[in-house]
Amino acid sequence: MGEKDILKKKFGVLGTEIEIQVVIDENERGGAWNNLLEAKDIYQSKEKVLSRFDSKSELSKLNANLGKFFKVSDDILYLSKKALEYYNISDGIFDPRILDALEKIGYDRDFKNIQSGGSDGNISDLNGDLADDLIVDGRNIKFEKKMDFAGIAKGYITDEVAKFLKEKGWKNFLVDSGGDMYASGTNINGRKWALNVEGIDENNLLIRISDQGIATSGITRRKWKTGEKRVHHLINPKKPNDFYFDLKTVTAICENAEMADFWAKVLFLGGIKKGLLLAEEKGIEAIFLDYNGNFHITSGARKFYSGKKK
Q1: How many whole angstroms separate alpha carbon 296 and alpha carbon 278?
Q2: How far apart are CA 215 and CA 255, in angstroms?
Q3: Fewer CB within 10 A of the terminal residue: the chain, N end or C end?
Q4: HSE of 42, CA atoms in CB hemisphere, 13 A
Q5: pLDDT by residue (tens digit) across 168-214?
Q6: What is the pLDDT of residue 117?
Q7: Strand runs labelled E in the chain
Q8: What is the mean pLDDT of residues 23-45?
Q9: How far is CA 251 from the centre of its chain?
């Protein structure tokens, strides 16, 4: 075995920065680099399917043809089924039908192009069961209302890239999709991967994980004004006109990035008190950062506390 090294690949896709790190022996460099390029292709191909900002994407075509059945790709089929499942688990807090509300408050383009805008008028509550508007019949799917799977898509893609790397024989790597991450095995020092929690100084809190996913949902970056009203992209479908600012972020640690992505959003929408109670009830390992800079950790997440980042 040669000397250990770490190979990194960074690129922009899904409206964020992606970084993949793979621990290698020196003689594995060429094969690892080719696999990282293939991983980039996975991100780009799935963005073409799932981006709501690309009028040619499969998701956009479904949203432009409401009420019609289409035979869909594996990605759309999987995310549609998972959306229905997560909708039920969360008692309707996770709901891909929030797209209309997002567009109404101005999130109808890539976020980097949003300064302000949108309507500060009243947004209608979502009524009816998701299964009435997202209909799955074998490989055929029909949207009765516009959908956006962004609430779990980034975590899903992160897991797909992690699965690809494992299939190629890599055991020790980190896939970071702008905060949605999957950490496999150990870092170059043979220890669990040491990760910062967004918004918290690593001297105050650093966590270590291995063979797990982690995701952060928050409003530190994606917030703006519609008229005089402050809004953000995390909409509670049961209270779409209420935008709470008591939390900055919620970070969830789960068995994969997709599940962490889902729980981080659901817990954030619960607020500090309800979110913490729900996390404890469901056994979700989570860290809540409030707007005063204080962090609150569920009992299960305390085992991820770490010291120096090595």
Answers
A1: 13
A2: 11
A3: N
A4: 23
A5: 999 999 999 998 999 999 999 999 999 988 777 677 778 999 999 99
A6: 52
A7: 4-13, 16-25, 69-71, 134-137, 140-143, 173-177, 180-184, 193-196, 206-209, 212-218, 223-226, 229-232, 247-254, 285-290, 295-297
A8: 96
A9: 10
**pLDDT at 63 (0 to 100):** 96
* Tens-place pLDDT, residues 70-112: 999 999 999 999 999 999 999 999 999 987 777 676 655 554 4
pTM for this structure? 0.89
Q: How many whole angstroms separate alpha carbon 141 and alpha carbon 61?
A: 12
Instruction: Give dist(CA 249, CA 119) in Å, integer.
Output: 25
| 19-32 as b/e: b if 16+ CB within 10 A | ebbbbbeeebeeeb
242, two tokens: 């209420």
CA 258 and chain centroid, separation: 7
> What Å distances lie between residue 71 and 46, 102, 107, 118, 193, CA to CA?
17, 27, 28, 34, 40
- Both tokens of 255, joined, read 């068995």
Residues 6 or more apart in contact with residue 88 via CB below 8 angstroms: none
* CA proximity to 282, closest of 254, 250, 248, 258: 254
N- to C-terminal Cα separation, the chain: 22
